[in-house]
């Protein structure tokens, strides 16, 4: 049933490695961008709050496939922005990371904002009374507690991001979903085996992540 794996025609580990890279780069970018957006949404500056709210509501409700194809057609093919990629494959990978970061950052933002709301208002007021600026209050007092409170929700966002990397196949990024499509076309007599292989692969990527971050969330939870 699995004889087609011995032919050397399919680079299964390489495809999943691209998926892992997409997940890691996008996760770091999403965490940074989502934190910035969360800061904007709780900022005392009306313009920043308006931008953060509009961005989150617009991008979060836009299909990810549309964002990835839009980056490819708009940035690369129309504006010839290749993000430093030397080949079309490198450019496609970086555009996919950009789109995944822009999309997933909105969910990170909302998770962090819910964590910020768990921090007692009195702590921020006391910090302001000591002369700390809004940025200092946010980075030194509020965000450290907010991150500890939302590790479990962020784990769910990371798992969703891992599965969302399959959309990158729409612009030809050679990750697991694109290889699965090729194998389904070439190995029509082994459909269940192909589906089983990729289902197992994604389970091996997502289940340990959920278990590990769930354990971390319990260890660092803020006791109130």
UniProtKB/TrEMBL annotation:
Keywords: Amino-acid transport, Cell membrane, Membrane, Transmembrane, Transmembrane helix, Transport. Its main location: membrane. Signal peptide: none annotated. CDD domains: TM_PBP2. Residues 16-213 form the ABC transmembrane type-1 domain. It comes from the Bacteria. This is Amino acid ABC transporter permease. The chain crosses the membrane at residues 12-37, 58-79, 91-109, 130-151, 157-179, 191-217. It is a multi-pass membrane protein. It comes from Streptomyces katrae. PANTHER family: AMINO-ACID ABC TRANSPORTER PERMEASE PROTEIN YHDX-RELATED, MEMBRANE COMPONENT OF AMINO ACID ABC TRANSPORTER. Belongs to the binding-protein-dependent transport system permease family. HisMQ subfamily. It is found in: Cell membrane. InterPro entries: AA_ABC_transptr_permease_3TM, ArtM/GltK/GlnP/TcyL/YhdX-like, MetI-like, MetI-like_sf.
């Amino acid at each position: 049933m699995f004889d087609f794996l011995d032919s050397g025609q399919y680079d299964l580990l390489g495809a999943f490695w691209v998926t892992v890279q997409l997940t890691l780069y996008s996760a770091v970018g999403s965490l940074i961008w989502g934190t910035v957006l969360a800061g904007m949404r709780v900022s005392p500056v009306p313009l920043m709050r308006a931008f953060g709210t509009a961005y989150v509501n617009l991008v979060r409700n836009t299909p990810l496939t549309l964002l990835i194809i839009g980056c490819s057609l708009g940035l690369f093919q129309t504006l010839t922005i290749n993000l430093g990629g030397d080949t079309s494959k490198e450019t496609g990978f970086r555009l996919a990371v950009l789109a995944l970061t822009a999309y997933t950052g909105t969910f990170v933002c909302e998770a962090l904002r819910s964590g910020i709301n768990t921090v007692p208002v009195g702590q921020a007021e006391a910090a302001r009374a000591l002369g700390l600026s809004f940025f200092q209050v946010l980075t030194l007092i509020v965000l450290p507690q907010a991150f500890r409170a939302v590790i479990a929700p962020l784990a769910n966002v990371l798992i969703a991001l891992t599965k969302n990397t399959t959309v990158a196949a729409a612009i030809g990024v050679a990750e697991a979903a694109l290889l699965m499509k090729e194998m389904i076309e070439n190995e029509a007599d082994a459909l269940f085996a192909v589906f089983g292989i990729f289902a197992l692969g994604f389970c091996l990527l997502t289940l340990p992540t959920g278990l590990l971050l769930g354990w971390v969330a319990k260890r660092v939870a803020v006791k109130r």
